[in-house]
Task: structure prediction
Amino acid sequence: MNIVTAEMSATVWKFTVPDGTEVAVGDTIAILESMKMEIPVEVTAAGAVRFKVTEGSEIAEGAVIAELI
Result:
């Protein structure tokens, strides 16, 4: 199992795929917002996405956004 973490403190603006979607390396699964900037969250492994946060959540740097199983 691989985890996807936040590179910086931000708000989870939106998910770009539904929970459970099979994704490939490099796919964007979410968009974070910080200081009016949109930060895409890309995966570094393939698998099914299981989100660990909700849209609108405030998250800290290093927080787990999703697991790939």
User: Anything to note?
Assistant: The radius of gyration is 11 Å. The longest strand covers residues 28-34. Residues 18 and 25 are 16 Å apart (CA to CA).
